[in-house]
Design goal:
The complex is a heterodimer.
Chain A: H1 3-17, H2 19-28, H3 45-59, H4 63-81, H5 83-86, H6 92-110, E1 118-123, E2 128-134, H7 140-153, E3 158-164, E4 173-179
Antiparallel strand pairs in A: 1-2, 2-4, 3-4
Chain B: H1 3-105, H2 112-150, E1 158-160, H3 162-173, E2 182-187, E3 193-195, H4 197-214, E4 221-229, E5 232-239, H5 246-249, H6 269-279, E6 283-289, E7 293-301
Parallel strand pairs in B: 2-4
Antiparallel strand pairs in B: 1-3, 4-5, 5-7, 6-7
Helix pairs in contact in B: 1-2, 2-6, 3-4, 4-6
Classes of the chains: A alpha+beta, B alpha+beta.
Bound molecules: protoporphyrin IX containing FE (HEM), adenosine-5'-triphosphate and magnesium ion (MG).
Magnesium ion binds near residues 210, 265 and 269 of chain B.
Chain lengths: ~190, ~300
């Protein structure tokens, strides 16, 4: 898994909960680099799962809340790194639909070793879509946070129902999403 | 020391470690980029040279088609001009004999002006026929050379000893070379190659003559080497002569491309050689540096 996901998490925890909290979370896990993460390296994705587990215990925060926060922060950092990929779009729904088909594909070209989830979308209209998430890393809660981060970025409010989940025995997760205020724009 | 100091100490050590690793990564990436760049440059050069060879082969092929069309058209009139001129020259001989006899018989009836004109005709005639013959022979040889460049020959092929052919060919041309020209041979054992020996000999002669002509006035060293490379026989002919300017390299195999004075070079030597080698399923190529010398390389498939 890309180092930038780890550095994004460490920035988030240090900013929101303090350096001590991050130190203690690291102390709970068996990190391959003793927590000295850099953006340009890769680390085992199992270490990300351990970190999330350690933070849930250390911060006494529910995992969905933590990952939601993290997803939003991560979207912000991804945008900082790859603004041109996000700025191709002006509307949330078409953007979300393009993540699995375009953006993650480009990530695989840019980083040969990138491990991105399989994400397929069904669009009903400009305002309603279903997203299917499938990944051996089962980080659907992070995906939820990323979607919320994206919504914030595009200035949209959405409702999101995680109606099927890999953690509850489904083959893949299903997110049913719709815009709170319908998109009435002519373009995109 | 407070708890918070300790926390920052731990974080500081971690950050330092991260920075070290980041610097290593930068170094690794730089090296990768350097090697990738190197690969790209090589690939590009390879592509450019392939592209050039392809263009060259394409150009020579269409020139070959044009040339074979033209020679075909020239051949017919050339044949009847030649036979008519031969006939005419026989007629002329008969006529001049007749005129000579007539002059004796009618010496007094012919005025002075007519006598002078007749004398001129009798004297010039043979010379004119001689020049016509030379001209026709020259046209004939150009046409047949162009044909060799242009057309696929299904001539006799036999398993042949190329080294042997090189040695005997050189005996033929040695007398025509400049006084100080010396030909060094470095001939490795070659398997027998299926080819038309007299054609391959012709190519060697062309290359050696060119090498000699590129040498200084008194001559210079020429080196011929042969070796096997995979399933191919490779022949090199190199000289230390004038070299070929880069902008001319793409033209030297064109029929009638010559830098030699009129009458000295027809510009067919290399195009004929190219045709012969292509016909054998081989490749002929050149490497040259101005003022340093030139090497022609022939690759012939052994099978
Ligand atoms: C809001 C829509 C997006 C969602 C729901 C999403 C989802 C995810 C998830 C859940 C992962 C973790 C790996 C996994 O689950 O298998 C991931 C990884 C990743 N995503 Fe996205 N993503 C989104 C947008 C983006 C954007 C906009 C970019 C870049 C411009 C991006 C680049 C990446 C990268 C670089 C990785 C890490 C690959 C690796 O670790 O090797 N994603 N994505
Ligand atoms: N070894 C060489 N060194 C320098 N220039 C060469 C050499 N071989 C060929 N050339 C150049 O290539 C041109 C074409 O050669 P080519 O043998 O086809 O014709 P030519 O020698 O000019 O005339 P021909 O062979 O018909 O008498 C030459 O005029 C010369 O400019
Ligand atoms: Mg020549």
């Amino acid at each position: 898994m890309k180092g930038m996901i780890f550095t994004s998490l460490s920035d988030l925890v240090e900013e929101e909960f303090g350096i001590g909290a991050w130190n203690r979370a690291l102390a709970r896990i068996d990190s391959v680099v003793d927590g000295a993460y850099i953006e340009a390296d890769n680390y085992p994705s199992s270490e990300m799962l351990s970190l999330v587990g350690a933070l849930v215990e250390e911060l006494e925060t529910p995992v969905d809340q933590l990952l939601d926060l993290f997803g939003q922060k991560l979207f912000f950092d991804l945008y900082r790194l790859y603004p041109e990929l996000v700025d191709r779009h002006t509307e949330l729904v078409p953007f979300l639909a393009s993540v699995g088909t375009d953006i993650h594909e480009e990530m695989k070209i840019l980083h040969v070793d990138a491990e991105v989830p399989d994400m397929r979308c069904e669009l009903y209209d400009r305002n309603r879509m279903t997203m299917y998430y499938d990944s051996p890393r089962k980080m659907c809660l992070l995906a939820e946070g990323l979607v919320r981060g994206a919504a914030q970025h595009f200035g949209r409010e959405i409702t999101l129902e995680h109606s099927e989940c890999m953690h509850k025995g489904a083959d893949r997760c299903k997110f049913e999403m719709s815009l709170v205020q319908p998109d009435r724009s002519e373009h995109e | 020391m407070s708890d918070s100091d300790d926390e920052y100490k731990i974080a500081y050590r971690r950050e330092k470690q991260a920075r070290k690793r980041a610097e290593e990564v930068i170094e690794e990436r730089n090296r990768e980029i350097y090697h990738l760049r190197q690969d790209l440059v090589e690939t590009r050069e390879q592509l450019e040279s392939n592209q050039e060879t392809l263009l060259q082969a394409d150009k020579l092929k269409s020139m070959g088609q044009l040339a074979s069309g033209i020679t075909h058209e020239i051949n017919n009139p050339l044949a009847y001009i030649t036979s008519n001129v031969n006939l005419l020259s026989e007629y002329y001989a008969t006529l001049t004999r007749f005129i000579a006899l007539q002059r004796l018989a009618h010496e007094n009836e012919v005025d002075e002006k007519m006598k002078k004109e007749l004398a001129l005709i009798m004297e010039d005639g043979p010379e004119i026929f001689c020049e016509i013959d030379e001209g026709l022979a020259r046209i004939g040889s150009i046409v047949s050379n162009v044909k060799r460049f242009a057309r696929k020959h299904e001539r006799h092929r036999a398993l042949s000893d190329i080294n042997q052919e090189i040695r005997s060919t050189l005996k033929l041309v040695e007398k025509q070379l400049k006084p100080d020209t010396r030909i060094g041979l470095d001939l490795e054992n070659l398997p027998l190659v299926s080819c038309n020996l007299s054609e391959v000999g012709q190519v060697i002669i062309n290359l050696v003559m060119n090498a000699d002509q590129a040498a200084p006035a008194q001559g210079g060293p020429i080196k011929i080497t042969t070796r096997t490379e995979g399933r191919c026989a490779v022949i090199n002919v190199s000289d230390q002569g004038s070299g070929i300017p880069e902008e001319e390299l793409e033209n030297i195999f064109d029929p009638f491309f010559t830098t030699k004075p009129v009458g000295e070079g027809t510009g067919l030597g290399l195009s004929v050689s190219y045709g012969i080698i292509e016909d054998h399923g081989g490749k002929i190529s050149v490497a040259s540096e101005l003022g340093v010398g030139t090497t022609f390389t022939i690759v012939l498939p052994i099978d």
